[in-house]
Design brief:
The protein is α/β, with parallel strands linked by helices and 195 residues long. Helices cover 52% and strands 11% of the residues. The protein has 11 helices and 4 strands. The protein has helices at 2-9, 22-34, 55-62, 80-89, 98-103, 113-121, 123-132, 136-143, 153-161, 167-178, 186-193, and strands at 15-19, 44-48, 70-76, 106-109. Strands 2-1-3-4 form a 4-stranded parallel sheet, with helices on both faces. Strand 1 (15-19), helix 2 and strand 2 form a beta-alpha-beta unit. Helix 2 (22-34) packs parallel to helix 10 (167-178), helix 6 crosses helix 9 (153-161) and helix 6 (113-121) runs parallel beside helix 10. The radius of gyration is 17 Å and the shape is globular.
Length: 195
């Protein structure tokens, strides 16, 4: 069960960053390296929860009522209610605003991490990364699908990144590597700044 495994990984941590999935972990760890940080040496662990709906369990397991670790997190805008309710149930406060959640270390991606990275890197540069990976032809075929026609290219790219297992994680690393460090999405910088 991934929850138990993640809890065991967190035993040697002083801080745990809760993220929805593996691509979020890859992006944060890649950015940390680019910023000259060694999260493992700092006793910071980035733990994918297997979806934000599991946040309450992770807060109970790792937070004040559980292992008592310092927690932070990264979540998608559409999932804000899950995070707010989880933080409330775990004793972090009632009816927390987005700013209050950020002050606790929980930062929002608008709309999601892929969207933030595509905007920060730029649509043309992302397509160049896709081309460098030999997937531009696949992306062009994807764009011709009826459901994709008429959609903005950034939305098509976002959807394309999630169409094959492992692709989101691969591009999370590649896009963070491509980022101008002055254009890092606020959510990623915010989480790293608080841990």
């Amino acid at each position: 069960m991934p929850v138990l495994l993640d809890a065991m990984v967190a035993r040697d941590a002083r801080t745990v960053v809760l993220v929805e999935g593996e691509s979020d972990r890859v992006a944060l760890e890649t950015l940390a390296v680019r910023r000259g940080r060694d999260l493992a040496a700092e006793s910071v662990r980035v733990v994918p929860m297997g979806g934000v709906t599991n946040i309450g369990h992770f807060l109970d397991l790792l937070g004040p009522a559980g292992q008592g670790l310092r927690l932070a997190g990264l979540y998608d805008h559409a999932e804000e209610g899950y995070v707010r309710r989880g933080l409330h149930r775990a004793g972090y406060g009632a009816e927390l605003s987005r700013d209050a959640m950020a002050a606790l270390g929980f930062h929002v991606c608008v709309a999601d991490l892929e969207d933030e990275l595509i905007r920060a890197v730029g649509v043309e540069a992302v397509q160049e990364v896709v081309a460098a990976e030999g997937e531009l032809r696949s992306f062009r075929l994807f764009q011709r699908q009826p459901a994709q026609q008429g959609r903005p290219v950034d939305a098509q790219l976002r959807r394309f990144l999630g169409t094959r297992s492992g692709r989101k994680s691969m591009y999370a690393r590649l896009l963070v590597d491509e980022l101008d460090l002055d254009r890092v999405p606020r959510s990623l910088d915010g989480v790293l700044a608080c841990v």
